[in-house]
Amino acid sequence: MEIKTNDKESLTAVQKLPKYDSEVLQYVSRLLRVWVQDEQQKTIRPCYHFLVRLYPKGQVIRYEICRNPDRKPTASQVFDFLCRTLLDPPNGEDAHRPGIISFTDQDLETQLANMLNTLGIETQVLQPAEGLEDLVKAVSESLIKRDLATRTDASERPGMLSKPGVDLSMIQAFFTAAYRLREKGPWSEFSENQVYGIRIDDIFRFVVVLGSSDNVFGVAVCSSLSRFRQKYCQAMGSQYSGSSSSNISCAFCGAEQLLVTYRCTQCKVAYYCNEKCQRKDWSVHKQECHNNALWNQKLERPFLQRKEMTLIYCSETAVPFDDLDLQAKYSWPLYPCEENFPVAFVVVANDGETSLDRPNKEELQWLTKLCEVLVESCGKTPSSLNEKALMEQNKWIFVETLSNHK
Ligand SMILES: [Zn+2]
Ligand SMILES: [Zn+2]
């Protein structure tokens, strides 16, 4: 039975409760960090109500699943939860009214202030209580332990904000660009066995647009063309005969060399795409130019160690919770279809071992611009591979068809 805002009997009962003037409670609703099946067998993240006593003693009073667990509760559902808890407090406490109920959400406070005031309870907006996120995690864990919920491998991976230097505005720009790409849907225009090249912010990368052959939509980005050839052979079940590591890469941006190669005239060891890359690398390279020991250590360069980057559109269960929460908090656009959530990952190769990481600041900004350029490039014929095109920024260059490569 729901206690409605016009349920006079229950409201009078709440009004008659003794009042603990100094007591401050806080109401919060949160999506748990687990997946459950709803009544229609749809996989959802359940939303829970939490009522916490902030003062005089920090304490969780009650938490329970929301009536419509796949969305934020309405103000009247929150009101019902509050009144039920006040009338029938758990843990054998005496029923009473608090002096103040605080909310973390301004809209909710505005909607409920009048009703609670008539019950003699003040309202305010406060930051979520300390320890709330731990409580959400603990409740999630307990559901998993009791086999009532599940979690995917991807769910607890770090979110995009976990990388130093990455901020909200960058993530928002990425979401917006990825949304426009999903909406534009150039999946049939680009074939998965065609490699394109593009230079953005003086970083040259090879790109394959995924989506022409199956249901995986996105883009794969790599500094090495032979890596793409190798992957294509693997996917086709054939043996890759070419070499994978002997190609010369640019010391600045890491791109495998295609046509022209500039070399440092002093040490003759460092190769570059062009003069621009060489100039940009000089602040790092000057330390190693006359010092072979340093050269062998491979000084830190923004893109060198990180071999591949992908943007894939996933269903929510394949997305880290932290990213889902950010998107929900800021209402960034998502294309209305099943697999619509843009997820960016970087494969990091370190001494033969590979691991997954989230894009750093430079990578995220690069990927965002790539989506924008790809949207702009739709319907236009890419430039053919030539020295001038290689040097130009934001120019989509056709490099090769993988199936033709022998
Ligand atoms: Zn370069
Ligand atoms: Zn040099």
TrEMBL record:
Source taxon at top rank: Eukaryota
InterPro entries in the cross-refs: Znf_MYND (IPR002893)
Pfam family, one: zf-MYND
Entry keywords, A to Z: Metal-binding, Zinc, Zinc-finger
SUPFAM superfamilies: HIT/MYND zinc finger-like
GO terms assigned for molecular function: zinc ion binding
Residue span, MYND-type domain: 250-289
Protein name: MYND-type domain-containing protein
Species per Swiss-Prot/TrEMBL record: Galdieria yellowstonensis
